[in-house]
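Supplementary Note 2. Why include the ligand at all?

Several targets in our set were suspected to adopt different conformations when bound, so apo predictions alone were not considered sufficient. For every target with a known small-molecule partner we therefore ran a joint prediction. The input for PMT is given below.
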Amino acid sequence: FEHTVLSGKRVVITAGPTREPLDPVRYISNHSSGKMGYALAEAAADAGASVKLVSGPVMLPVPPRVECVQVETAEEMLAATLDGIEACDLFIAAAAVADYRPVAIAEHKIKKGSEEIMELRLVKNPDIVATVAGLETGRPFTVGFAAETRDVIDYARSKLARKRLDLIVANDVSNPEIGFNSDDNAVTLVSAEGETGLPQTSKRQLARQLIEQIAQHYLKSTS
Ligand code: PMT
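The joint prediction is reproduced in token form.
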């Protein structure tokens, strides 16, 4: 592992889930544990980068030499990500951001009524990685993830194009041994030119391989 591939570079990484409140005691969220994003932050710091981790609520220790900003909602994650993004070289979006949030947050705990069916109204959240990739000035090299349960590579390729990303990490989350909340992962790194498969290993190991590969693509793009 080349310990200095990212020395002097600034990297921002999102990790974990977001929580979208319904009322003071309830929220909508997902099973992301933050393990993948935290492992990437550790690997990027080990590769010499200065790393800012923007994290949703998780139960993990912050890796050494990593600055961590804790957030809850997608809107907070967007604001924390954009803060200083123009000074950053590389952005990696590993967070599982809620695509929608409740239209309104009830001021008081929602009471159980007599109705059998209750409907929630949701509104689309901002897309953090697409916002960063669309910046007109100070756009960093931008890497997304694609969590898919079928047609993994095809969907990843369409997200790569639609969100205007430089690279996307395709993650099959239908297999419980890899993906959400597992200790292991297996992914395919997808670029406009091709694909690199990274077979199942610990998220820590995989993160080191991903940082190495991403750094090569990034350095090529700047030379
Ligand atoms: O946290 P772990 O338990 O370790 O699990 C890791 C993981 C499975 C969460 C991770 O490997 C992963 O795949 N992260 C992306 C999860 C996801 O929400 O994927 P998506 O296909 O819905 O989103 C595509 C990309 O857009 C992602 O880079 C996501 O961060 C980004 N996005 C999505 C919606 C949104 N509003 N803003 C975003 O930035």
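The longest helix spans residues 203-222. The pocket of PMT is lined by residues 14, 16, 32-36, 74, 93-97, 99, 125, 127-129, 144-147, 159, 171, 173, 179-181, 203 (CB under 6 Å). Comparable summaries for the other entries are listed in the accompanying table.
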